[in-house]
Amino acid sequence: MKYVVVLEKAERNWAAYSPDVLGCIATGRTPEETLRRYQKALRMHIEGLKEDGLPYPEPTARAVTVEV
What we know:
It is a single chain. By secondary structure, the chain is of the alpha+beta class. It has a domain at 6-51. The protein is built from one helix and three strands; from the N terminus they run βββα. The protein has one helix at residues 31-51, and strands at 6-9, 14-17, 25-28. A three-stranded antiparallel beta sheet has the order 1-2-3, covered by helices on one side. A hairpin with a 7-residue loop joins strand 2 and strand 3 (25-28). The protein starts with 5 loop residues before the first strand and ends in a 17-residue tail after the last helix.
């Protein structure tokens, strides 16, 4: 599965989340580190849902860029 992941610059670090996976976030010093951490957190999150017999979120979000 492929999820849209949003990377945001904060004052002192970066944060990542997916609009499709509420409650799963990661932070890091660089965008690359943050994305690696998010991938690991997302895998663990989905594995936990499966182990508990809960449905996991289907990827539905889309991302586009808009020029102004």
